[in-house]
Amino acid sequence: MHLQRLVLPTYFWLFVLYLFTPLMVIAVMGFRDSNFVAFPINKWTTDWYHEILFDRDIQSSLWLSLRIAVVSTAISIVVGLPTAFLVARTKGVLRGALISILLLPAFLPVIVSAISLRIFAGKIGLETGMLAIALGHAVASMPFVVIMVLTRIDSMNRNLVDAAQNLGADPIIVLTRIVLPYLSPALFGAFLFSMLLSFEDFVRSFFLGGFDQTFPVLLYSRLRFGFDPGLAAVSTIVLIATTCLGLFAERILRGRRARSSQQKKGSPTND
After folding, report:
1. pLDDT tens per residue across span 68-85
2. How many other CB atoms are there within 10 angstroms of residue 132's CB atom?
3. Domain CATH code at residue 240
4. Structural domain contains residue 37
5. Sign of CA dihedral 141, 146, 147, 149
6. Is residue 80 part of a domain?
7. Domain for residue 250, yes or no?
8. I need a labelling partner for 206 at 20 to 30 A (CA). Which of 171, 220, 240, 255 fits?
9. Tally of CB atoms within 10 A around 138
10. Which residues form the domain of 161?
11. Measured over all CA atoms, what is the biggest interatomic distance in the chain, rounded to whole angstroms?
12. What is residue 54's DSSP assignment?
């Protein structure tokens, strides 16, 4: 019994160490006072961080990636939300068929999806660049938006909508004051997931991009000439920013769940 209690925690922390050791190595290499990455580190410096913070190419690529992430996320939510409503209203075999069709882009190999999107963009006359990349990222993230929203819809109590309609609320009021507030945790999670998925998407950005490079494509182009501590420094900054964003999102979601549980406990029950 004592052995079982020891094995599982040990296995867990070994797995965590396996996951985070490469990231810690990258973070340490950003402080190396040399033009190449290797151990041991004889002298430490922060010059690489100062250099990348004022690198115009990195700044422009980060700004481009952020704009693409916002546009693609907006498209994913605007298209995915009504699609989730449609699937929720569908029953039986047709519902399963719709879900299978919607999830297909998520299971396709990324390279196949990127090549298909590039051919499609050429056929409709869409030039490569920001808009093409945003549409490609939206295709990749929309299935996850639909599933996250659909899961939340399925857990919703239908009596809330019926009660609002019986009190005279029109469909717009029901949607804005009942349905959307209930779906807000799923929409917030879908927003963050789509943003992160778009920001780190390299393959679709590479095939659909124009002359301006997104952040992953810029890192790849520089990596072709060798990995230097500057790349380690910028990777560390992105890692820290992503971690802070994830912790912030988790805190918000926990707060909403806590308030929701308190409202359920404080609401009167029907005898």
Report:
1. 999 999 999 999 999 999
2. 24
3. 1.10.3720.10
4. no
5. positive
6. yes
7. yes
8. 240
9. 23
10. 42-263
11. 74
12. T
